[in-house]
Amino acid sequence: MKRVSITNCFFAIVLFNAGALAAAPGQSPPARVSSERNPHHLANMETQTVRLAIHGGAGTIERSKMTPEREREYRAGLERALTAGYEILKRGGSSLDATEAAVRVLEDDPNFNAGKGSVFTSAGTNEMDAAIMDGKTLAAGAVASLKHIKNPISLARLVMEKSGHVMMDSEGAELFAKENGIELVDQKYFFTQERWDALQKIKAAEKSRTSGGGKKFLITDQDRHGTVGAVALDQNGNLAAATSTGGTTNKRPGRVGDSPVIGAGTYANNATCAVSATGDGEYFIRATVARDVSALMEYRGMSLKEAARAALDKVAKLGGTGGLIAIDHEGNMTLPFNTAGMYRGYADPNGNFVVEIYK
Ligand code: ASP
Fold first, then answer.
1. Which entry of 59, 88, 203, 274 is 20 to 30 Å from 39 by CA?
2. By the 8 A CB rule, do 23 and 30 touch?
């Protein structure tokens, strides 16, 4: 996929309050993207408002443990994903294509917990979950416990479009992938030293705890989990959401998180919004977070920002942490989280990219 040079797109790094982007209820939709202001604009194309937001996981992202070099890598990865998705949207492509493309980029990036950079199970294996949803038709595809799929989000899309099912898991899903030309790889592909070390650290901490040993281990959310996701609004007014994850470090083999559960980690509905979540999956499933955001807008008439905040508050009440990204049918965006940070980025109404990590 062609990459837009960073010099072509004003790369703004701004601090903003989580959720600050959402418009107040009743606010008119954001201005159309004009050819003068938008460096991504293609000549002679009537461009409706397009929107894209992505995340690379929420948690305690320790500034002290983040070297400038590392931070640059994360930001570059997020920017690459934004570029991949935004290029599609500005050409008039669908929100489904844009979210899939953005997520694929993050799946291929070893720094994020999805695809290549997936965390390890307690058995030392990698098991991935993903989902995608089309806000226009409410069609959805989800996959879970995959061991050999290079880009789980593309298999989720295939499940949505060709399987006649919504959700498939493990060997059955991989057989379906093989039959349809989706790329399978050896488990070795998913090995990264950092994720392996995180598993060893968590196992050692568990052992010390159960044996009453007093040894202290510093285990960050970075060690424990992460997820990638994208939400988009295309020129035809269609919303889509896509989420992909390696789950949680040291999870039992067979554990499935919220990411592939439609209505928990992933949801899209043109009538309301598109949502991709990240955080403690068990809590996000119990709070049915993504669908809750949509339902609060639909039944309670809440704004996107209010609904997203209310849904996250329910997670917090249960004891969970995390965040989400969401776009509504008018193009409002919100990216709230109740953790110290969330890898995130979006294209603003002028087509400029904003990438942020901390609060
Ligand atoms: N929600 C993911 C899961 O529980 C993990 C994360 O987003 O950090 O599988």
1. 274
2. yes
Q: What whole-number distance in Å separates Cα of residue 233 and Cα of residue 272?
A: 11
Q: How far is CA 288 from CA 84, 262, 311, in A?
A: 29, 9, 8
Nearest CA to ligand 1 atom 4: 281
Q: How far apart are CA 352 and CA 37, in angstroms?
A: 10
* 210 within 8 A of 202, measured Cβ to Cβ: no
Distances (CA, A) of 207 to 39, 216, 312: 54, 11, 32
- Whether the predicted pLDDT of 27 surpasses 50: no
Measured over the CA atoms of residue 301, residue 307, residue 311 and residue 316, the dihedral's sign is negative
DSSP code, position 235: T
Which residues have a Cβ under 8 Å from the Cβ of 29 and sit 6 or more positions away?
49, 330, 331
Distance of CA 100 to the CA centre of its chain: 10
Record the pTM: 0.87
User: 245 CA distance to ligand 1 centroid (A)?
Assistant: 7
Please list the active-site residues.
227
Handedness of CA 224, 102, 355, 324 (dihedral sign): negative
Residue type, 264: A
Mean pLDDT of 348-352: 89
Q: Residue 275: is its pLDDT beyond 70?
A: yes
Work out which ligand 1 atom sits closest to the CA atom of 225: 8
Are 108 and 115 a contacting pair, CB within 8 Å? yes
CA 260 – CA 140 distance, rounded (Å): 10
In angstroms, the CA 252 to CA 47 distance is 47
Q: What is the mean pLDDT of the chain?
A: 87
Question: At residue 300, what are phi and psi to the nearest 5 degrees?
Answer: -105, -5
Question: pLDDT tens digit string along 155-211?
Answer: 999 999 999 999 999 999 999 999 999 999 999 999 999 999 999 999 999 888 888
48: pLDDT confidence band, cut at 50, 70 and 90? low
Task: Report CA Rg, the chain.
Answer: 19
Query: Out of 131-145, 195-209, 241-255, 275-289, which region has the weakest mean confidence (pLDDT)?
Result: 195-209
Q: What residues flank ligand 1, with Cβ below 6 Å?
A: 57, 225-227, 245, 247-248, 257-259, 265, 278-279, 281, 284
State which H helix or E strand residue 245 sits in.
strand 239-245
